[in-house]
Amino acid sequence: MMRPQLVAMAIVMLLAVICGSGTGSLVEVPEVTQAPPLPPRNPRNNQTRSRMPNNFRGLAAPTSPPRCDYRELMTNLHDRVGVLVTLDEDQRHRLEVIDKKLDQLVESSSAKMESMKAQQMDFLQRLDSFEHIQRLSRNTLDELKGETDQVFGPRRVRELKHKLNNRNKMKVLSRTARDIPQSQYALSGGQVLNETNLNLSERLDALATLLASTAINVRSVQVEVGNLAKVIRRQTRVIHGKGQKASVSQSPIFYGPAGQSVPNSCAFHILAVDGILKIQLTPESESFYVSCDGDWTVILSRTSDDVNFERGWLDYRDGFGNLAGDFFIGLNKLHALTSSGLYELRIALEDFSGNVAYASYSLFAIGSERESFPLILLGKFQDNPLIPAGDSLSYHAGARFSTVDHDNDNCLDCNCALKHKGAGWYSNCAKSNVFGQYLPNAQTGETGMWWDTFAGQNSLKKVRWMIRPVAESLDDARR
Length: 479
Fold this sequence. Notes:
The chain is an alpha+beta fold. Among the domains are: 153-169 and 227-248, no CATH class; 266-478, Gamma Fibrinogen, chain A, domain 1 (Gamma Fibrinogen, Chain A, domain 1, Alpha-Beta Complex). It contains ten helices and twelve strands. Strand 6 and strand 7 (356-365) form a beta hairpin. Helix 1 runs antiparallel to helix 3 (70-152). Mean pLDDT is 77; it is low at 24-35, 45-50, 55-62, 184-197, 243-259 and 473-479.
Protein backbone atom coordinates (compact mmCIF):
# COMPACT_ATOMS: atom_id res chain seq x y z
CA MET A 1 0.00 0.00 0.00
CA MET A 2 2.84 2.47 0.89
CA ARG A 3 5.14 1.54 -1.99
CA PRO A 4 4.07 4.45 -4.27
CA GLN A 5 4.78 6.95 -1.46
CA LEU A 6 8.20 5.44 -0.74
CA VAL A 7 9.14 5.58 -4.42
CA ALA A 8 8.03 9.21 -4.61
CA MET A 9 10.14 10.16 -1.56
CA ALA A 10 13.15 8.39 -3.06
CA ILE A 11 12.72 10.39 -6.28
CA VAL A 12 12.52 13.62 -4.26
CA MET A 13 15.77 12.77 -2.40
CA LEU A 14 17.55 11.87 -5.65
CA LEU A 15 16.52 15.10 -7.36
CA ALA A 16 17.60 17.08 -4.31
CA VAL A 17 21.04 15.44 -4.43
CA ILE A 18 21.34 16.15 -8.17
CA CYS A 19 20.34 19.79 -7.78
CA GLY A 20 22.72 20.20 -4.84
CA SER A 21 25.64 18.83 -6.87
CA GLY A 22 24.71 21.03 -9.85
CA THR A 23 24.46 24.28 -7.92
CA GLY A 24 27.17 23.71 -5.33
CA SER A 25 29.92 26.38 -4.91
CA LEU A 26 33.16 26.02 -6.80
CA VAL A 27 36.41 26.07 -4.90
CA GLU A 28 38.04 29.30 -5.75
CA VAL A 29 41.89 29.29 -6.17
CA PRO A 30 43.55 32.12 -4.27
CA GLU A 31 45.26 34.79 -6.45
CA VAL A 32 49.04 34.39 -6.86
CA THR A 33 51.06 37.47 -5.86
CA GLN A 34 53.32 38.56 -8.69
CA ALA A 35 57.06 38.83 -7.92
CA PRO A 36 59.00 41.90 -9.02
CA PRO A 37 60.18 41.51 -12.59
CA LEU A 38 63.84 40.42 -13.09
CA PRO A 39 66.08 42.50 -15.22
CA PRO A 40 66.10 41.32 -18.77
CA ARG A 41 69.27 39.35 -19.58
CA ASN A 42 68.75 38.60 -23.20
CA PRO A 43 66.31 40.49 -25.31
CA ARG A 44 66.03 37.63 -27.78
CA ASN A 45 65.13 35.25 -25.11
CA ASN A 46 62.60 37.68 -23.87
CA GLN A 47 61.09 38.05 -27.29
CA THR A 48 61.04 34.31 -27.73
CA ARG A 49 59.50 33.86 -24.32
CA SER A 50 56.92 36.49 -25.07
CA ARG A 51 55.94 34.76 -28.27
CA MET A 52 55.27 31.46 -26.52
CA PRO A 53 51.67 31.02 -25.34
CA ASN A 54 51.16 31.49 -21.68
CA ASN A 55 48.85 28.83 -20.29
CA PHE A 56 48.93 30.19 -16.79
CA ARG A 57 47.50 33.60 -17.24
CA GLY A 58 44.54 32.94 -14.88
CA LEU A 59 41.57 30.77 -14.25
CA ALA A 60 38.73 30.98 -16.69
CA ALA A 61 35.62 32.61 -15.36
CA PRO A 62 33.25 29.92 -14.16
CA THR A 63 30.12 29.47 -16.25
CA SER A 64 26.79 30.20 -14.56
CA PRO A 65 25.48 27.04 -12.85
CA PRO A 66 22.18 25.50 -14.09
CA ARG A 67 19.27 26.92 -12.24
CA CYS A 68 17.12 24.41 -10.23
CA ASP A 69 13.72 25.60 -8.97
CA TYR A 70 13.00 23.63 -5.77
CA ARG A 71 9.54 25.00 -5.22
CA GLU A 72 8.19 24.02 -8.64
CA LEU A 73 9.77 20.60 -8.38
CA MET A 74 8.43 20.02 -4.91
CA THR A 75 4.92 21.20 -5.95
CA ASN A 76 4.81 18.80 -8.90
CA LEU A 77 6.02 15.92 -6.75
CA HIS A 78 3.53 16.80 -4.00
CA ASP A 79 0.69 16.77 -6.54
CA ARG A 80 1.78 13.40 -7.87
CA VAL A 81 2.09 12.00 -4.37
CA GLY A 82 -1.44 13.28 -3.63
CA VAL A 83 -2.79 11.54 -6.72
CA LEU A 84 -1.07 8.31 -5.68
CA VAL A 85 -2.51 8.59 -2.17
CA THR A 86 -6.01 9.16 -3.61
CA LEU A 87 -5.67 6.11 -5.86
CA ASP A 88 -4.40 4.12 -2.91
CA GLU A 89 -7.44 5.10 -0.79
CA ASP A 90 -9.81 4.31 -3.69
CA GLN A 91 -8.29 0.86 -4.11
CA ARG A 92 -8.50 0.27 -0.36
CA HIS A 93 -12.20 1.27 -0.38
CA ARG A 94 -12.88 -1.06 -3.30
CA LEU A 95 -11.14 -3.92 -1.53
CA GLU A 96 -13.25 -3.28 1.58
CA VAL A 97 -16.45 -3.33 -0.54
CA ILE A 98 -15.33 -6.60 -2.17
CA ASP A 99 -14.60 -8.13 1.26
CA LYS A 100 -18.03 -7.05 2.49
CA LYS A 101 -19.78 -8.57 -0.53
CA LEU A 102 -17.79 -11.79 -0.07
CA ASP A 103 -18.92 -11.95 3.57
CA GLN A 104 -22.54 -11.43 2.51
CA LEU A 105 -22.15 -14.15 -0.14
CA VAL A 106 -20.75 -16.54 2.47
CA GLU A 107 -23.66 -15.77 4.84
CA SER A 108 -26.19 -16.23 2.03
CA SER A 109 -24.58 -19.53 0.99
CA SER A 110 -24.62 -20.79 4.57
CA ALA A 111 -28.28 -19.79 4.87
CA LYS A 112 -29.09 -21.64 1.66
CA MET A 113 -27.29 -24.72 2.97
CA GLU A 114 -29.29 -24.54 6.20
CA SER A 115 -32.48 -24.19 4.18
CA MET A 116 -31.55 -27.21 2.06
CA LYS A 117 -30.80 -29.20 5.22
CA ALA A 118 -34.18 -28.25 6.66
CA GLN A 119 -35.90 -29.26 3.42
CA GLN A 120 -34.02 -32.57 3.46
CA MET A 121 -35.12 -33.24 7.04
CA ASP A 122 -38.70 -32.38 6.10
CA PHE A 123 -38.52 -34.73 3.13
CA LEU A 124 -37.17 -37.54 5.31
CA GLN A 125 -39.98 -36.98 7.81
CA ARG A 126 -42.54 -37.09 5.02
CA LEU A 127 -40.94 -40.27 3.69
CA ASP A 128 -41.16 -41.86 7.14
CA SER A 129 -44.82 -40.82 7.39
CA PHE A 130 -45.52 -42.32 3.98
CA GLU A 131 -43.88 -45.60 4.95
CA HIS A 132 -45.90 -45.66 8.16
CA ILE A 133 -49.14 -45.06 6.23
CA GLN A 134 -48.14 -47.80 3.79
CA ARG A 135 -47.61 -50.26 6.63
CA LEU A 136 -50.99 -49.35 8.14
CA SER A 137 -52.64 -49.79 4.75
CA ARG A 138 -51.09 -53.22 4.36
CA ASN A 139 -52.26 -54.25 7.81
CA THR A 140 -55.78 -52.99 7.08
CA LEU A 141 -55.80 -54.81 3.76
CA ASP A 142 -54.71 -58.02 5.46
CA GLU A 143 -57.49 -57.62 8.02
CA LEU A 144 -60.06 -57.07 5.25
CA LYS A 145 -58.79 -60.15 3.44
CA GLY A 146 -59.16 -62.16 6.62
CA GLU A 147 -62.74 -60.92 7.13
CA THR A 148 -63.56 -61.71 3.50
CA ASP A 149 -62.23 -65.24 3.93
CA GLN A 150 -64.44 -65.65 6.98
CA VAL A 151 -67.54 -64.58 5.03
CA PHE A 152 -66.92 -66.21 1.63
CA GLY A 153 -64.58 -69.02 2.58
CA PRO A 154 -60.84 -69.49 2.03
CA ARG A 155 -59.32 -67.66 -0.91
CA ARG A 156 -57.76 -70.79 -2.38
CA VAL A 157 -61.14 -72.55 -2.51
CA ARG A 158 -62.76 -69.55 -4.22
CA GLU A 159 -59.98 -69.42 -6.79
CA LEU A 160 -60.49 -73.12 -7.59
CA LYS A 161 -64.23 -72.51 -8.02
CA HIS A 162 -63.58 -69.67 -10.44
CA LYS A 163 -61.17 -71.81 -12.42
CA LEU A 164 -63.71 -74.63 -12.68
CA ASN A 165 -66.42 -72.20 -13.80
CA ASN A 166 -64.11 -70.75 -16.46
CA ARG A 167 -63.26 -74.24 -17.74
CA ASN A 168 -66.93 -75.17 -18.00
CA LYS A 169 -67.64 -71.97 -19.90
CA MET A 170 -64.78 -72.63 -22.27
CA LYS A 171 -66.14 -76.12 -22.90
CA VAL A 172 -69.53 -74.64 -23.69
CA LEU A 173 -67.96 -72.16 -26.11
CA SER A 174 -65.86 -74.82 -27.82
CA ARG A 175 -68.66 -77.40 -28.31
CA THR A 176 -68.81 -79.15 -31.69
CA ALA A 177 -71.49 -78.23 -34.22
CA ARG A 178 -74.27 -80.77 -34.75
CA ASP A 179 -74.73 -82.37 -38.16
CA ILE A 180 -78.02 -81.02 -39.44
CA PRO A 181 -79.30 -81.65 -42.95
CA GLN A 182 -78.98 -78.69 -45.22
CA SER A 183 -82.60 -79.09 -46.31
CA GLN A 184 -83.68 -77.55 -43.00
CA TYR A 185 -81.80 -74.39 -43.83
CA ALA A 186 -83.25 -73.87 -47.32
CA LEU A 187 -83.50 -70.21 -48.25
CA SER A 188 -86.13 -68.42 -50.26
CA GLY A 189 -84.01 -68.41 -53.46
CA GLY A 190 -83.49 -72.10 -53.44
CA GLN A 191 -80.09 -71.63 -51.89
CA VAL A 192 -78.88 -73.41 -48.81
CA LEU A 193 -76.37 -72.37 -46.11
CA ASN A 194 -72.90 -73.46 -47.00
CA GLU A 195 -70.05 -74.23 -44.60
CA THR A 196 -69.02 -70.60 -44.39
CA ASN A 197 -72.49 -69.54 -43.20
CA LEU A 198 -72.48 -72.31 -40.64
CA ASN A 199 -69.12 -71.15 -39.27
CA LEU A 200 -70.40 -67.55 -38.99
CA SER A 201 -73.48 -68.72 -37.11
CA GLU A 202 -71.32 -70.66 -34.68
CA ARG A 203 -69.17 -67.63 -34.08
CA LEU A 204 -72.16 -65.44 -33.34
CA ASP A 205 -73.49 -68.07 -30.96
CA ALA A 206 -70.11 -68.24 -29.17
CA LEU A 207 -69.96 -64.45 -28.90
CA ALA A 208 -73.43 -64.29 -27.38
CA THR A 209 -72.47 -66.98 -24.87
CA LEU A 210 -69.29 -65.06 -23.97
CA LEU A 211 -71.25 -61.85 -23.40
CA ALA A 212 -73.75 -63.65 -21.20
CA SER A 213 -71.01 -65.24 -19.12
CA THR A 214 -69.27 -61.83 -18.77
CA ALA A 215 -72.50 -60.28 -17.52
CA ILE A 216 -72.87 -63.11 -14.99
CA ASN A 217 -69.29 -62.56 -13.78
CA VAL A 218 -69.87 -58.82 -13.41
CA ARG A 219 -73.01 -59.47 -11.45
CA SER A 220 -71.20 -61.88 -9.13
CA VAL A 221 -68.43 -59.34 -8.57
CA GLN A 222 -71.02 -56.69 -7.72
CA VAL A 223 -72.59 -59.03 -5.20
CA GLU A 224 -69.21 -59.71 -3.60
CA VAL A 225 -68.47 -55.96 -3.42
CA GLY A 226 -71.84 -55.33 -1.79
CA ASN A 227 -71.26 -58.05 0.77
CA LEU A 228 -67.79 -56.68 1.48
CA ALA A 229 -69.26 -53.20 1.99
CA LYS A 230 -71.73 -54.64 4.47
CA VAL A 231 -68.88 -56.26 6.38
CA ILE A 232 -66.97 -52.99 6.45
CA ARG A 233 -70.00 -51.08 7.70
CA ARG A 234 -70.60 -53.70 10.37
CA GLN A 235 -66.99 -53.47 11.55
CA THR A 236 -67.21 -49.68 11.57
CA ARG A 237 -70.30 -49.82 13.78
CA VAL A 238 -68.48 -52.11 16.16
CA ILE A 239 -65.54 -49.72 16.33
CA HIS A 240 -67.58 -46.55 16.85
CA GLY A 241 -70.09 -48.13 19.20
CA LYS A 242 -73.62 -49.44 19.01
CA GLY A 243 -76.25 -47.34 17.35
CA GLN A 244 -73.73 -45.05 15.58
CA LYS A 245 -74.21 -44.98 11.86
CA ALA A 246 -71.22 -45.55 9.71
CA SER A 247 -70.40 -42.79 7.27
CA VAL A 248 -68.23 -44.82 4.93
CA SER A 249 -70.64 -44.92 2.04
CA GLN A 250 -72.43 -41.64 2.78
CA SER A 251 -71.29 -38.47 1.02
CA PRO A 252 -71.28 -35.26 3.11
CA ILE A 253 -74.19 -32.93 2.54
CA PHE A 254 -73.14 -29.33 1.87
CA TYR A 255 -75.56 -26.49 1.51
CA GLY A 256 -73.17 -23.97 0.00
CA PRO A 257 -73.01 -21.92 -3.21
CA ALA A 258 -74.92 -23.34 -6.13
CA GLY A 259 -72.94 -25.72 -8.30
CA GLN A 260 -70.21 -26.24 -5.68
CA SER A 261 -69.85 -29.35 -3.53
CA VAL A 262 -66.98 -28.10 -1.31
CA PRO A 263 -67.07 -24.94 0.88
CA ASN A 264 -64.99 -21.99 -0.25
CA SER A 265 -64.13 -20.41 3.12
CA CYS A 266 -64.34 -20.87 6.89
CA ALA A 267 -67.72 -19.13 6.78
CA PHE A 268 -69.01 -22.74 6.70
CA HIS A 269 -66.88 -23.75 9.69
CA ILE A 270 -69.78 -25.84 10.98
CA LEU A 271 -68.57 -28.51 8.56
CA ALA A 272 -65.03 -28.47 10.00
CA VAL A 273 -63.64 -31.41 11.96
CA ASP A 274 -61.45 -30.34 14.89
CA GLY A 275 -61.08 -26.96 13.23
CA ILE A 276 -59.78 -28.41 9.93
CA LEU A 277 -61.85 -27.77 6.80
CA LYS A 278 -61.32 -28.69 3.16
CA ILE A 279 -62.14 -25.73 0.89
CA GLN A 280 -62.25 -25.11 -2.85
CA LEU A 281 -62.17 -21.50 -4.01
CA THR A 282 -63.64 -22.14 -7.48
CA PRO A 283 -65.06 -25.25 -9.18
CA GLU A 284 -61.99 -25.30 -11.45
CA SER A 285 -59.33 -24.84 -8.75
CA GLU A 286 -57.75 -27.51 -6.57
CA SER A 287 -59.06 -28.02 -3.05
CA PHE A 288 -56.86 -27.79 0.05
CA TYR A 289 -57.18 -27.93 3.83
CA VAL A 290 -57.21 -24.89 6.13
CA SER A 291 -57.42 -24.28 9.86
CA CYS A 292 -60.55 -22.41 10.99
CA ASP A 293 -61.12 -20.34 14.11
CA GLY A 294 -64.84 -19.68 13.81
CA ASP A 295 -65.32 -17.95 10.47
CA TRP A 296 -61.66 -16.83 10.45
CA THR A 297 -59.09 -18.70 8.30
CA VAL A 298 -55.80 -19.06 10.19
CA ILE A 299 -52.82 -18.35 7.91
CA LEU A 300 -50.05 -18.26 10.56
CA SER A 301 -49.82 -19.86 13.99
CA ARG A 302 -46.81 -19.84 16.33
CA THR A 303 -46.96 -21.11 19.89
CA SER A 304 -43.59 -22.86 20.41
CA ASP A 305 -40.21 -23.52 18.82
CA ASP A 306 -41.24 -26.91 17.41
CA VAL A 307 -41.21 -25.61 13.82
CA ASN A 308 -38.22 -23.76 12.37
CA PHE A 309 -39.27 -20.59 10.52
CA GLU A 310 -35.80 -19.69 9.21
CA ARG A 311 -36.50 -21.27 5.83
CA GLY A 312 -36.00 -20.64 2.13
CA TRP A 313 -38.24 -19.36 -0.63
CA LEU A 314 -39.71 -22.73 -1.66
CA ASP A 315 -40.92 -23.53 1.86
CA TYR A 316 -42.64 -20.18 2.28
CA ARG A 317 -44.13 -20.46 -1.19
CA ASP A 318 -45.71 -23.88 -0.60
CA GLY A 319 -46.29 -23.66 3.17
CA PHE A 320 -44.99 -25.79 6.03
CA GLY A 321 -45.84 -27.04 9.50
CA ASN A 322 -48.88 -28.81 10.94
CA LEU A 323 -52.36 -27.29 10.61
CA ALA A 324 -53.17 -28.59 14.08
CA GLY A 325 -50.09 -26.84 15.57
CA ASP A 326 -47.54 -24.31 14.33
CA PHE A 327 -47.63 -23.65 10.59
CA PHE A 328 -47.64 -21.15 7.74
CA ILE A 329 -50.29 -21.67 5.06
CA GLY A 330 -47.99 -20.77 2.14
CA LEU A 331 -47.78 -17.73 -0.12
CA ASN A 332 -49.39 -19.46 -3.11
CA LYS A 333 -52.51 -20.40 -1.13
CA LEU A 334 -52.60 -17.01 0.59
CA HIS A 335 -52.49 -15.30 -2.81
CA ALA A 336 -55.28 -17.57 -4.09
CA LEU A 337 -57.41 -16.77 -1.03
CA THR A 338 -56.94 -13.00 -1.05
CA SER A 339 -57.37 -12.74 -4.83
CA SER A 340 -60.72 -14.61 -4.73
CA GLY A 341 -62.45 -11.80 -2.81
CA LEU A 342 -61.98 -9.00 -0.28
CA TYR A 343 -60.47 -10.18 3.01
CA GLU A 344 -59.78 -8.48 6.32
CA LEU A 345 -56.88 -9.30 8.65
CA ARG A 346 -56.71 -9.82 12.41
CA ILE A 347 -53.47 -10.45 14.32
CA ALA A 348 -53.52 -11.87 17.86
CA LEU A 349 -50.37 -11.39 20.00
CA GLU A 350 -49.38 -12.62 23.45
CA ASP A 351 -46.17 -11.98 25.39
CA PHE A 352 -44.54 -14.14 28.06
CA SER A 353 -46.23 -12.13 30.82
CA GLY A 354 -49.67 -13.23 29.62
CA ASN A 355 -50.63 -9.88 28.05
CA VAL A 356 -52.85 -10.31 24.96
CA ALA A 357 -53.46 -7.68 22.27
CA TYR A 358 -54.93 -7.51 18.76
CA ALA A 359 -54.23 -5.63 15.53
CA SER A 360 -56.91 -5.47 12.82
CA TYR A 361 -56.82 -4.16 9.25
CA SER A 362 -59.89 -3.58 7.07
CA LEU A 363 -58.33 -5.14 3.94
CA PHE A 364 -55.48 -7.52 3.20
CA ALA A 365 -54.11 -9.07 -0.04
CA ILE A 366 -50.78 -10.14 -1.54
CA GLY A 367 -49.56 -10.43 -5.14
CA SER A 368 -48.38 -13.43 -7.14
CA GLU A 369 -45.02 -15.19 -7.22
CA ARG A 370 -44.13 -13.41 -10.47
CA GLU A 371 -44.21 -10.17 -8.46
CA SER A 372 -42.39 -11.76 -5.46
CA PHE A 373 -45.65 -11.89 -3.40
CA PRO A 374 -45.82 -8.16 -2.49
CA LEU A 375 -48.14 -6.85 0.23
CA ILE A 376 -50.26 -5.04 -2.37
CA LEU A 377 -53.30 -4.28 -0.21
CA LEU A 378 -53.36 -3.34 3.46
CA GLY A 379 -56.44 -1.49 4.67
CA LYS A 380 -56.89 1.00 7.45
CA PHE A 381 -55.70 0.04 10.91
CA GLN A 382 -58.71 -0.52 13.16
CA ASP A 383 -58.74 0.05 16.89
CA ASN A 384 -59.96 -3.28 18.15
CA PRO A 385 -62.57 -3.10 20.91
CA LEU A 386 -60.29 -5.48 22.79
CA ILE A 387 -56.74 -4.50 23.79
CA PRO A 388 -55.10 -2.84 20.72
CA ALA A 389 -51.57 -3.89 19.85
CA GLY A 390 -50.78 -0.83 17.72
CA ASP A 391 -49.92 -0.57 14.04
CA SER A 392 -46.57 -2.17 13.20
CA LEU A 393 -47.52 -3.50 9.76
CA SER A 394 -48.38 -0.39 7.71
CA TYR A 395 -44.64 0.33 7.45
CA HIS A 396 -44.34 -2.89 5.38
CA ALA A 397 -47.20 -2.11 2.97
CA GLY A 398 -46.15 -2.48 -0.67
CA ALA A 399 -42.95 -4.40 0.16
CA ARG A 400 -42.07 -7.66 -1.55
CA PHE A 401 -41.59 -10.87 0.40
CA SER A 402 -38.00 -11.77 1.34
CA THR A 403 -36.39 -14.95 2.65
CA VAL A 404 -32.82 -15.87 3.59
CA ASP A 405 -32.17 -16.99 0.00
CA HIS A 406 -34.38 -14.40 -1.78
CA ASP A 407 -33.41 -10.80 -0.92
CA ASN A 408 -36.24 -8.50 -2.10
CA ASP A 409 -36.00 -5.74 0.52
CA ASN A 410 -35.09 -2.09 -0.10
CA CYS A 411 -31.86 -2.22 1.92
CA LEU A 412 -28.86 -1.73 -0.39
CA ASP A 413 -26.11 -2.68 2.06
CA CYS A 414 -27.81 -5.51 3.98
CA ASN A 415 -30.05 -8.58 3.76
CA CYS A 416 -32.93 -8.04 6.19
CA ALA A 417 -33.94 -11.71 6.21
CA LEU A 418 -30.43 -12.74 7.28
CA LYS A 419 -30.28 -9.87 9.75
CA HIS A 420 -33.58 -10.82 11.44
CA LYS A 421 -33.17 -14.62 11.05
CA GLY A 422 -36.53 -15.10 9.37
CA ALA A 423 -38.67 -13.84 6.50
CA GLY A 424 -41.32 -11.25 5.78
CA TRP A 425 -42.32 -8.14 3.86
CA TYR A 426 -39.18 -6.17 4.74
CA SER A 427 -38.91 -2.52 3.68
CA ASN A 428 -35.37 -1.42 4.54
CA CYS A 429 -35.82 -3.84 7.43
CA ALA A 430 -38.75 -3.92 9.82
CA LYS A 431 -41.03 -2.67 12.59
CA SER A 432 -42.31 -6.20 13.24
CA ASN A 433 -40.80 -9.65 12.79
CA VAL A 434 -43.43 -12.36 13.23
CA PHE A 435 -41.42 -14.92 11.21
CA GLY A 436 -38.28 -14.52 13.38
CA GLN A 437 -36.76 -16.92 15.85
CA TYR A 438 -38.81 -18.20 18.80
CA LEU A 439 -36.76 -16.95 21.76
CA PRO A 440 -38.13 -17.99 25.16
CA ASN A 441 -38.82 -15.84 28.18
CA ALA A 442 -38.84 -12.33 26.70
CA GLN A 443 -35.31 -12.17 25.34
CA THR A 444 -34.68 -9.02 23.32
CA GLY A 445 -33.06 -8.68 19.92
CA GLU A 446 -33.78 -8.11 16.25
CA THR A 447 -33.76 -11.83 15.48
CA GLY A 448 -36.68 -12.67 17.77
CA MET A 449 -40.44 -12.71 17.17
CA TRP A 450 -41.65 -9.20 18.09
CA TRP A 451 -44.19 -6.45 17.39
CA ASP A 452 -42.75 -2.99 17.94
CA THR A 453 -45.90 -1.13 19.07
CA PHE A 454 -46.92 -3.88 21.51
CA ALA A 455 -43.79 -4.97 23.35
CA GLY A 456 -40.93 -3.35 21.47
CA GLN A 457 -38.36 -5.95 20.47
CA ASN A 458 -39.19 -8.26 23.37
CA SER A 459 -39.92 -11.76 22.13
CA LEU A 460 -43.55 -12.87 21.93
CA LYS A 461 -44.98 -16.14 23.17
CA LYS A 462 -47.85 -16.57 20.68
CA VAL A 463 -48.70 -15.06 17.29
CA ARG A 464 -51.73 -15.85 15.14
CA TRP A 465 -52.71 -14.26 11.81
CA MET A 466 -56.31 -14.78 10.60
CA ILE A 467 -58.25 -13.57 7.57
CA ARG A 468 -61.91 -13.73 6.58
CA PRO A 469 -64.08 -12.28 3.80
CA VAL A 470 -65.38 -8.81 4.56
CA ALA A 471 -69.09 -8.49 5.39
CA GLU A 472 -70.33 -7.98 1.80
CA SER A 473 -68.34 -10.88 0.37
CA LEU A 474 -69.44 -13.09 3.25
CA ASP A 475 -73.11 -12.33 2.63
CA ASP A 476 -72.71 -13.07 -1.08
CA ALA A 477 -71.04 -16.41 -0.30
CA ARG A 478 -73.82 -17.42 2.09
CA ARG A 479 -76.50 -16.45 -0.42
